[in-house]
Amino acid sequence: MPSNYIPKEPTNPFKEYDRAKLTEYLRSANLARKPGEGYEYSNLAVGLLGDLLSQQAGISYEELLRTKITEPLGMLDTVIKLSEEQSTRFAPPHNSALLPDHAWDFDALAGCGAIRSTVDDMLLFAKASMNPPKGEIGKAIELAWKQHKPALKGNHAMGLGWMIAGDGSTRWHNGQTGGYHSMILVSRDLNCATVMLCNTAEMKLDVLAEQIFQTIVGMDVKPTTFEKEIVIDPKIAERLQGKYQLAPGMVLTVQVKEGRMMAQLTGQQFLGLSPVSEKEWKYQAVDATLKFELPKTGNSPKVTLFQNGRQMPSPRIPE
Prior knowledge:
The protein is of the alpha+beta class. The chain is built from 8 helices and 13 strands.
């Protein structure tokens, strides 16, 4: 992300990032490596590409999307700004703890996540990717489908926007914004596609989408199993609530919200927690764990965040 990306609204972080801020960043940006030495997926890069293409075309990114892709393919429900009628069908967003979330709005970086669609429309896109129509859009689909980069340093082989699976044939892409998760898989060799759109921001949905795809093509798929949820006495959870000093200027807020334990770092949104025991709670959306000290009576005096091999003790901030 650009260094001057400092969201005022953690639940709608891209809303205020406009072209002026993007231009300001680009004027001072230093490349981490020479072009061509490596590659990785970047929200900044994809958002910037969308903005540059719209500037070159002299129209908005949404108008460019409509004229070049969605209208030719008949994808009439694939838009950025919803109509009044479409708004009535817009699934409300939820976070990983299944609590209501906030749909994100985009400005200059719209290319990295502003598009809204339906399963029917995305299946039209998948069908066109398997059997490109004639004309310019068919040529563009073929260009995007072609492998442009080999697998390198843990990264997948890449088309234009497509990740290429290990079988060398299946193309896929996934994405997550506030309250939503999506994935598409397309294989020309297998004549098969899967689209998953969900109004819950949860990375585990990728596994489910892959299993659906594998089942369709005839693979023997073992269904996903889920851990049985541990029930914690609400009185214990109340004793864990509070603010903890993770680092200077960084506070970890723990609270029970609508019967679910949540945690929030300064400047970020609340994330759901699942209990392993009364003292240990796992984050649902990221690979991290909180371990609380719990005396016989009274509130927890300290919690330790375990993430990326680090242990970060955080004492309770007195109220």
